[in-house]
Amino acid sequence: MKGIEIKSFGNTWDGRKALCWTITNGSGAQLSLTDFGARITGICVPDRDGRMEDVVLGFDTAEEFTQKGRYFGTTVGRYANRLAGASFRLNGSVYKLYANKGTNSLHGGKSGFDDKIWKADITGEDSIRFTYESEDGEEGYPGKMDVTVCYRFTEENEVEITYRAVSDKDTIINLTNHAFYNLKGHGNGSILGHKLKLYSSFFTPVNADMVPDGSILPVKGTVMDFTGLHPIGEQIDKTDEQLRLAEGYDHNFILQKEERGSLSKAAEVVEPESGRTMTVFTDQPGIQFYSGNLMKPCTGKGGREYGKRDAFCLEAQCFPNSMEVTHFPTPVLRANDTYEQKTVYRFGICRDKEKGE
């Protein structure tokens, strides 16, 4: 039945109560969200035969996310991806952050936005707004920041995510969503047969710490070339230094933009067997494609088993480590200015099983 259902989502690792909201549209497709991390916990959409399946990996309780998959489905912040040396320089001052990935800061630090209980408000029959007040100095970042993440689930099976933030001091920000997808359905094996197209002609290579080295390279004719639709697994095990460093794909791709900041197509994914498709639109300059290389075996929702490369992520973003590379887009948010970005995940169906497109 169309509408929004609310239920308990258990307790977090430290005993905070969490809730889960499920939005059902007119066709019976569903988007499920929790206030723990303002995260996506499920997306149920039909295959070419009309069978509904949850295409997002996740867990049955809030506590399990911390234990088994901290970033699964979450809103990531204040700064998604990596900051080298767990520090950055702004206005002549150096800000030290928590180093939670070797010597670097990853996805906001020790207790990022993924670990917070957000305030939730139902804003319509198809939408929920999450808000969080990040204190000045939280995880080392300057400025008290008010953050809003709005989810809307449309009749066209689109998940619209709109982010807004205001800080009372100059600071940096890079928000994204870190859902893990398998268009065959969560727990249904490898994603290497999924076909991917990225609207990108260039990527940012990484060093041994998985931090961009500052260079920008063309994808044409390389293992990073997804300018045409082809299987994720087609070249993933080839001998290549970038694939070796990431144990697969975990790279930022520079998106083609006719106008900076415009909402445009970033990626298309097709799963040939089920016929499910996902198209990503964003106004961000980059997108991180991750092929689930470091996923550890665990039991997910409903007792389904997850393992290495059983999901992929497409995370719209500013570039990783942008503060250290002058020719990368700036992540600086000036005091009392408004940060805004939008990303849309549209789910559909391809009818041609042979072509998978």
What is the CATH architecture descriptor? Distorted Sandwich
Unreliable runs, pLDDT <50, ≥5 residues? none
The overall strand count is 29
Count of the separate structural domains = 1
Roughly what is the average pLDDT, rounded to an integer?
97
What share of the residues lie within helices?
under 10%
Shape: globular
CATH class: Mainly Beta
How would you explain this protein's 3D organization?
Strands 11-12-13-14-29-23-22-17-20 form a nine-stranded antiparallel sheet, with no helix packed on it. Helix content is 4%, strand content 41%. With 357 residues, the protein is mainly β. Strand 1 (3-11) and strand 2 (17-24) form a beta hairpin. The chain has helices at residues 62-68, 241-246, and strands spanning 3-11, 17-24, 30-34, 39-46, 52-54, 75-76, 82-83, 87-90, 93-96, 105-106, 119-124, 127-134, 145-153, 158-167, 171-172, 176-177, 195-198, 200-204, 217-218, 230-231, 250-255, 264-270, 276-282, 286-290, 298-299, 305-306, 313-317, 332-333, 338-349. It starts with a strand and ends in an 8-residue tail after the last strand. It has a single domain (3-349), classed as Beta-galactosidase, Chain A, domain 5. The protein has two helices and 29 strands.
